[in-house]
Design a protein that fits this description.
CATH class of chain A: Mainly Alpha
Number of helices of chain A: 3
Oligomer: heterodimer
Strand content of chain A: under 5%
Order of helices and strands of chain B: EEHEEHHHEHHHEHEHEHEHEHEHHEEEEE
Largest sheet of chain A: none
Radius of gyration of chain A: 12 Å
Largest interface: A-B, 12 and 9 residues
Number of helices of chain B: 14
Helix content of chain A: 55-70%
Helix content of chain B: 25-40%
Strand content of chain B: 15-25%
CATH class of the largest domain in chain B: Alpha Beta
CATH architecture of chain A: Orthogonal Bundle
Number of domains of chain A: 1
CATH topology of the largest domain in chain B: Peroxisomal Thiolase, Chain A, domain 1
Distance between the termini of chain B: 16 Å
Order of helices and strands of chain A: HHH
CATH architecture of the largest domain in chain B: 3-Layer(aba) Sandwich
Structural class of chain B: alpha/beta
Number of strands of chain B: 16
Distance between the termini of chain A: 16 Å
Shape of chain A: globular
Shape of chain B: globular
Structural class of chain A: mainly alpha
CATH topology of chain A: Non-ribosomal Peptide Synthetase Peptidyl Carrier Protein, Chain A
């Protein structure tokens, strides 16, 4: 997958799960303020990403620092690259 | 008897006839059936019944995702009905959210559909890694009550009675007692259930579900009819807004009817089979609570689900208490049996019957079973200036309940 394909898949998965308009999703979009997510949603966000990309990320320390959609893009792209090179 | 008089000022309905008590009454007065064939039931091994009364006219997207994420369909039904009941009563946000309003809403069990989805996934690899954070809120026993309270911002008491087919009768009765004791000024009360094959299957394996009318669903169930062959399960929600008479008068609210009495008792003789003496005792206790005599009851809205034993036992009990002349009908022929929602859906119709001075007949009652012929059945829509009615509900588990409504 290219980086853009990964980004598109992240955005479409989260848009579907959280009923958010794709057109309003930019890298600067904040999860809590802009998307209105809360702690329960973050649990489900992890499950959505794990299911979409076939990876385990629940225990990753880096997840706790995610604040924006761009942070998710970077995190997943890095994780995918790590998995491919492993 | 309640220390404070308790009245109804709002009704919310989600039924096979859509949303709102107007749609419900329109269908009942024109003899419509909400029962349909459900093809998916034919794909279940061992399931003989293929009919159900499914809710219509529901748009879950009306509820914001923040609240909807913790709801299965039964909570969605209950929330929409509760919103409608509160709106009909004209409650302000302060009245709704200020702590003087409580919620008493129950269901038979938590969401069977969500439980099925969880255990199906869990069974694949014995894993919890795909479990969503909101799963528990769908399956907890107080799912409907809590979800309604969350969505409407209720800060008062929460009660979630669970007594299968008696659930919403209990919910209303206990709510009336709370207001009657002065513990709450307003109560949103009633029941909700969602259709699932587990419910139909439960009755089917007991030989208590209708199986002979799968190809002509609107001809079943047939309460009190000699050709009845059992229950048709349904779904939906009925929610009433109760408040003290003083409160309703102070607000200038339109008073739809009064809750005059309530009773419930347990039948330890059998967890499944109804007993005429226990049913009669429940109705007698309700009359005592309302301080009325049997001859003051103008109409009996029967539980009558079209089972062999239930209809006969209820007929015997009604004849014992009221004699042969008081008009009796069951609305299960139109609505099927919406389980925890049935009591309040039928109470909603009783309120309108009181207001409109009309009796609705038992749909599909063509030839009265001789064993149910000891009472007067309503066979057609009948204009009748009724003032006081009794509504029965009886549940698996041996739980009887009766509510007495009075025109105001």
């Amino acid at each position: 997958m290219t980086d853009q394909e990964i980004i598109d898949k992240i955005n479409s998965s989260l848009a579907e799960e959280f009923e958010f308009a794709l057109a309003e999703m930019t890298p600067d979009t904040t999860l809590f303020e802009d998307m209105g997510l809360d702690s329960l949603d973050v649990v489900d966000l992890v499950i959505v990403l794990e299911t979409a990309f076939g990876m385990k990320i629940r225990e990753e320390e880096a997840i706790r620092k995610i604040r924006t959609l761009g942070d998710i893009h970077t995190f997943v792209i890095d994780k995918k690259r790590q998995m491919e090179s492993a | 008897m309640f220390l404070k008089r308790v009245v109804i000022t709002g009704i919310g309905v989600v039924s096979p006839f859509g949303r709102g008590v107007e749609n419900l009454m329109g269908a009942l007065l024109t003899g419509k059936s909400g029962v349909v064939e459900v093809p998916a039931l034919s794909e279940i091994t061992g399931m003989r019944t293929r009919v159900a009364a499914l809710a219509t006219g529901v748009d879950p997207m009306e509820i914001p995702r923040k609240f909807r994420r913790s709801m299965s369909s039964m909570s969605i039904f209950a929330t929409l009905a509760a919103q409608d009941a509160a709106a009909m009563a004209g409650l302000s946000d302060v009245e709704l959210q200020g702590g003087r309003l409580g919620v008493s809403i129950g269901s038979t069990i938590g969401s069977p559909q969500t439980m099925q989805e969880f255990f199906r996934d869990f069974g694949i690899d014995n894993s919890l890694e795909r479990m969503k954070s909101t799963l528990f809120f769908h399956i907890m026993n107080h799912s409907c009550a809590s979800n309604v309270a969350q969505a409407l911002g209720v800060t008062g008491r929460i009660l979630a009675p669970a007594a299968a087919c008696s659930t919403s009768c209990h919910a209303v009765g206990y709510a009336a007692e709370m207001i009657g004791m002065g513990k709450q000024e307003f109560m949103l009360c009633g029941g909700a259930d969602e259709f699932h094959p587990l419910t139909s299957g439960t009755f089917d394996i007991m030989n208590a579900a209708s199986t002979r009318f799968n190809d002509s669903p609107t001809r079943t169930p047939r309460p009190f009819d000699k050709d009845r062959d059992g229950i048709v399960c349904g779904e939906g929600s009925g929610i009433l807004l109760l408040e003290s008479l003083e409160s309703a008068k102070l607000r200038g609210a339109t008073i739809l009817a009064e809750i005059a009495g309530f009773a419930t008792n347990s039948d330890p003789g059998s967890i499944a089979n109804p007993n005429a003496s226990c049913i009669a005792e429940c109705m007698r206790l309700a009359l005592e609570d309302a301080e009325v005599t049997p001859d003051q009851i103008d109409y009996v809205n029967a539980h009558a689900t079209a089972t062999e034993q239930g209809d006969i036992a209820e007929s015997e009990a009604i004849a014992h208490i009221f004699g042969a002349k008081t008009p009796v009908s069951s609305l299960k022929g139109h609505l099927g049996h919406a389980m925890a929602a049935s009591g309040t859906l039928e109470l909603a119709a009783c309120i309108e019957m009181l207001r409109q001075g009309v009796l609705i007949p038992t749909l599909n009652l063509e030839h009265v079973d001789p064993l149910c012929a000891n009472i007067t059945h309503v066979h057609g829509v009948t204009n009748c200036p009724i003032k006081t009615v009794i509504k029965n509900n009886f549940a698996l588990g041996g739980i009887n309940s009766s509510i007495i409504l009075r025109r105001y």
